[in-house]
Design brief:
Keywords: Cell outer membrane, Membrane, Receptor, Signal. This protein has about 850 residues and is mostly beta strands. Helices cover about 5% and strands about 60% of the residues. The protein contains 5 helices and 45 strands.
């Protein structure tokens, strides 16, 4: 099969190839001939047989000394490596990677065809002692050249929890009391599952994370500077949740059950392989419950007025998650896979809100409002993949198609009682209101990727992608005044009906090459075109927008040694708003605080620069990174008087919250992470995150700046008789948001695990925030019209017992190619209406 490269790709390849003198030398072949020998193999983690990407593979002379490298390559993201054009003979092959021990093996290159070097099983650095390979556990947090990896399956305190609990403990991440994650202080990021999108994550992240059990999560990858091969969305980076995969050969699986004071869940998985077919499936269901509370105090500055609100309530919910994957490899170089998942949830909230408004005598009010709200969501996706590899090492082509559906709904019933009337019976309600909204969604994606090596040290990746999204919102609001109408009457200002269509086409190319044995580069660009159509059916108007962007990226890495490297990365990212940012439906469940979206938002662009230093000293892994990220035309949450949006009169004292392109933000960040093993049975990891943030909004006349940061620690100790104890701590300081300081956050957990029945079963007991009944998330908003302080009480104190039983023998399976639609901005789990 011949390869025909586009003209621009050929120029890129020719221009980026290093000079001959800079390339690694291989054993000389006779003049005019090519050496016929070659080597290929894989590098795996000794603890779980997962591929080890970016490992260094060096070919050495058969006898030491000397140890002068003859040739060298880096493993792919699936842990594969290959060397070609080698003279037949005996050699040594040395494999190493940051965070792992080193292995050296004698190999004999044959005169014809490829020589299989076999798999290398690298032990974690902490278990490579005195030249002996000891199989043990890798560090809880692993530092890779382009990402930080949190191995959630090794964390005792995750037992029985959800994906939100797992993200709370991952490096550079925080999760507030409502389940909203932030990456290095920013909500503008993308979450993937197994490298591909789950549609529910873009629409309602907090609820979707609750429905994914922690027991099914293998690891969390935090990518702060993605390359051009990723979709351009997510200005702060990408969070990839990797679920546990199926078996390579024997039948195996697990079942688990957890019960606690805040949640309960159960589930299991089953995996097997028969011949060329692999199958895996998982199913889980759970529920959550607990009290909630909030308070608000607002002072009107433009006119006399004081608003005080206090609310209490209880939230409950149920969720389920199921996934199925089927792989078929008919030949050595061809593979087919089909993967699907279904994710659903329902949340119910009951609130009793007391409102006091004191202004001039005509406006003095006292009201109590009983609110019952429900949110539901159902999403599903089906992905088919064809993967074609070739006899040429590292060369492959893939074609992926995905169909997804994501439907969500939100509704509330509110009974208002004036003066001191007793809530609980609708007969004495002074007014009643009910609202229903739904946001159906459909998504179709086709993607193709091709990887072509040029020699041992140069690789060109190129591909294209097309996405079609269709969503919208249909909402109605009815009101009932007992003394005015006989029944509920539709409210025109509380209804909406609009349709939103988004089409994205993208092309990308990335060229990676090694200039010297220690210096390597990667250059890439992604061109994206977006077409939007918005149809407001209630008014019969239609609007549209077409925009195109080129998103360059590049990196340079210098390896001082096998255990020490310096990396410089640049990338440009784009943020497109999704349905919750665009939905114009005005939520009036709180008659003093309205919320609505803005369908005319523009995308935001961000430029990111990052310098990172990684090193391994004995058994201590250290990663330090400094970065600058600037976002122009940033999408911000803004609050103002509802009269400014034409939703109320000037004298009403009602505020409204929406989204707008009103700011330019710059984040100066310094992150550090250390993973160490002070004693044989003791693991310790953690580090600080310091930030200086500037936000400027000429449109609002606001300039905010200030320091913030956080600290995370994770420690575990292996005790006698198969006991393991673990503690997790994280704290983040308030952030300088656009209209005032955001909340601080505190979370800590204690856990003990006991392994039973020859480690086929685990019994885990965990405590979350045992010394705090709740954590107050306080925010303050200051505008020329009013000053407001809010407090949301998150009752996170909890205890949980989890029992897990494993059966069969698990082996790691082949990694599948997937779609990653990480190109839209969701609202991070924020829902219309007070939670």
């Amino acid at each position: 099969m011949k390869l025909y490269l586009p003209y621009w790709a050929a120029l890129l390849a020719a221009g980026a190839l290093p000079p001959p003198s800079a390339r690694a030398q291989v054993p000389a072949a006779p003049f005019g001939l090519t050496a016929p020998g070659s080597l290929r193999g894989t590098v795996l983690d000794s603890t779980n047989s997962e591929p080890v990407p970016y490992a260094t593979v060096v070919l050495l002379p058969a006898v030491a000394p000397p140890d002068e490298p003859i040739a060298g390559v880096t493993t792919s993201d699936r842990g594969r490596f290959a060397m070609a054009n080698l003279a037949p003979g005996a050699y040594r092959l040395r494999v190493s990677c940051l965070g792992y021990g080193t292995q050296t093996r004698a190999v004999l290159v044959g005169p014809t065809g490829p020589t299989e070097a076999g798999p290398f099983h690298l032990p974690p650095a902490a278990t490579a002692l005195a030249g002996a390979v000891v199989v043990g556990e890798k560090p809880l947090v692993e530092v890779r050249p382009d990402r930080l990896v949190y191995h959630a399956a090794q964390d005792v305190t995750n037992a029985g929890g959800s994906a939100a609990d797992v993200l709370r403990k991952a490096p550079l991440l925080t999760v507030d009391g409502k389940g909203t994650p932030r990456l290095r202080g920013s909500a503008n990021f993308t979450v993937l599952v197994n490298g591909r999108p789950a549609p529910a994550l873009a629409q309602n992240l907090a609820e979707a994370l609750r429905s994914i059990p922690a027991a099914q999560i293998q690891r969390v990858e935090v990518i702060t500077a993605p390359s051009a091969r990723y979709d351009g969305e997510g200005t702060a980076g990408i969070i990839n949740i990797v679920l546990k995969k199926g078996a390579e050969r024997s039948l195996h699986g697990d079942v688990y059950a957890a019960a606690g004071t805040r949640d309960a869940n159960s589930g299991g998985s089953l995996n097997f392989q028969k011949g060329k077919i692999r199958f895996s499936t998982s199913l889980s269901a759970g529920r959550w419950y607990g009290p909630a509370g909030f308070s608000l105090e607002r002072t009107d500055l433009a006119r006399p007025g004081q608003l005080t609100q206090n609310g209490s309530g209880r939230s409950t919910g149920q969720s389920y998650y199921s996934a199925l994957a089927l792989d078929f490899d008919p030949t050595e170089h061809q593979g087919f896979s089909l993967a699907g998942s279904v994710n659903g949830w329902r949340g119910d909230d009951r609130q009793d809100v007391t409102t006091r408004y004191a202004g001039n005598p005509a406006q003095n009010q006292f009201q109590r409002r009983a609110i019952q709200s429900r949110s539901t969501g159902l999403s599903g996706e089906l992905t088919g993949t064809y993967l074609r590899t070739f006899a040429t090492p590292r060369r492959e082509w893939s074609l992926v198609a995905q169909a997804a559906r994501n439907d969500a709904a939100f509704g509330y019933n509110a009974d208002q009682f004036d003066s001191f009337a007793t809530p609980g019976t609708t007969g004495n309600a002074s007014s009643r209101e009910r609202s229903r909204s739904r946001t159906p969604g459909r998504e179709f994606t086709v993607q193709t990727d091709f990887t072509q090596p040029f020699g041992e040290f140069c690789t060109l990746e190129a591909g294209g992608k097309a996405i079609y999204r269709r969503t919208g919102s249909v909402a109605t609001t009815d009101a009932y005044q007992p003394d005015q109408e006989p029944d509920f009457v539709p409210q025109p200002d509380g209804a909406t009906d609009f349709n939103y269509v988004q089409q994205v086409q993208a092309l990308y190319a990335t060229y990676a090459f090694r200039l010297t044995q220690k210096l390597s580069f990667s250059l890439g660009a992604r061109a994206e075109r977006t077409r939007l159509t918005v149809d407001f059916r209630t008014t019969g108007t239609q609007t549209g927008q077409v925009y195109a962007h080129v998103l360059p990226s590049g990196s340079a890495q210098y390896a001082f040694s096998e255990a020490k490297s310096l990396r410089l990365v640049y990338s440009r990212r784009i943020t497109r708003p999704f349905i919750d940012y665009l939905n114009p439906f005005v939520n009036r469940s709180d008659p003093r605080n309205y919320e609505f979206g803005n369908p005319r938002l523009d995308p935001e662009l961000a430029d990111s620069y990052e310098l990172s230093y990684n090193t391994l000293v004995k058994q201590v892994t250290v990663s330090v990174s400094a970065s600058v990220r600037h976002t122009g035309n940033a999408i911000e949450t803004v609050r103002g008087l509802a009269s400014g949006y034409g939703l109320a009169t000037d004298a009403s004292g009602i505020t409204a919250q929406t989204f707008a392109n009103v700011a330019a933000n710059t984040f100066y960040q310094l992150n550090g992470y250390v993973s160490a093993k002070p004693l044989k049975n003791w693991d310790l990891s953690g580090g600080p995150d310091m930030q200086y943030i500037t936000r400027r909004s000429p449109a609002l006349g606001i300039a905010q700046r200030g320091f913030t940061g956080g600290l995370s620690l994770n420690t575990s100790y292996v005790l006698p008789k198969n006991f393991t104890a673990q503690a997790v701590f994280s704290y983040s300081w308030p952030t300088p948001d656009l209209q005032g300081p955001g909340p601080a956050d505190l979370h800590y957990s204690l856990g003990v695990k006991k392994s039973l029945w020859q480690e086929k079963a685990d019994f885990v007991f965990t405590l979350d925030n045992p010394f705090h009944r709740y954590w107050p998330y306080r925010t303050r908003i200051e505008t020329p019209e009013f000053a407001e302080t809010q407090q949301y009480r998150a009752y996170q104190q909890a205890g949980r017992v989890t029992v897990t039983y494993r059966f069969g023998q698990a082996q790691e399976g082949r990694q599948r190619k997937t779609v990653a639609n990480d190109d839209v901005k969701g609202n991070g789990g924020q829902q219309h209406g007070r939670q």
